[in-house]
Amino acid sequence: MRHLMRSLTALVLLLITVGNITAQDPCDEIVIGSVQYSAVHPDVLEIMAYSQGNDCVSYPSFILYAPNGDTLAMETVNFFCLGMGFPQTHFLAIQPGVQLPTGTFNASLELFTGFGETLVCTWDLNDLDPCPAESCIEAEIYLTNTGELVPFTAYWWITDDTGDQVDDGWFEMDENMATGFDTTCLAPGNYTLTFTPFSPIDESYVAGITRSWQQSIGTNVAQQQDTTPLDLEFHWYLPCADGTNSIQEAELPGILLQSDHSLLGISALDNEPLGTVNLHTLDGRMVRSLSTRNASTNIPVDDLATGIHIVRIDRGNGEIIIRKAFIH
Length: 328
What we know:
By secondary structure, this protein is mostly beta strands. The chain has strands at about 20, 30-35, 45-50, 60-65, 70-75, 90-95, 105-115, 120-130, 135-145, 150-160, 165-175, 180-185, 190-195, 205-210, 220, 230-235, 255-260, 265-270, 275-280, 285-290, 295-300, 305-315, 320-325. It has three domains: about 20-130, Immunoglobulin-like; about 135-240, Sandwich (Immunoglobulin-like); about 255-325, Immunoglobulin-like (Sandwich), CATH 2.60.40.3080.
């Protein structure tokens, strides 16, 4: 573990990617792990911090200042003690009218105790970059059942603000665990997380996404008071979307869908067998099912209602692909 003097000259990055940063006595036991934008709240900074000592730093709160002394972001007291021996996430609200610089900038960080009454420590942060170093940042998708636990497979997909699907997946809900998880990787931007309607998911379920479930619940349909529990619109490191860390999303497994009035064509671009293909309506009814060893197939759809249908492809090697198809 690397200890620096009170005047910091290193870039403050994630706790898992760089050495920890500590201040000079009397703060040599307090570790600042990272200072970054919140993944899902563009007007919030998150600070990972903890104490290596056994004394309680009571009612801690952090304030981030510009070099001219202007307040950039401020924390409302949320903990009885600063985390002792384990990282603790502190949320600082970026102040109204404040626009943080793009790229790196200098700032100072102060830690107060006693509901902001006593200044404990000050750190100089040089070349601070609140955007993640990674261009594609891992996210944890979760679904929590607040009612009676029932087993089912939860299928999900994520679309960007142009409506293009950027990822999909599935996980099992069971009778023992109230929350199921899956992971994805997203570039900064605006997205929508959708869970399949052919499931028991209703208002008793809470769908959400976060950078780390252990540190923060991120955002979810309950926070947003969303009356449509299957869909969650969210930001993902939005202030970093126009910076150097913004990239195009990773390509999905190559499946080509082509629809006309009578046939839905499905092709695997890797020329491997499709496997089992099921077509569902949005209310969960399976209206077509077939298995094939070919890399492409055509499904008759001339008797189906116009609108969005869900294509589920089980390739038999553990890979399951979910796509939306518009029948017209």
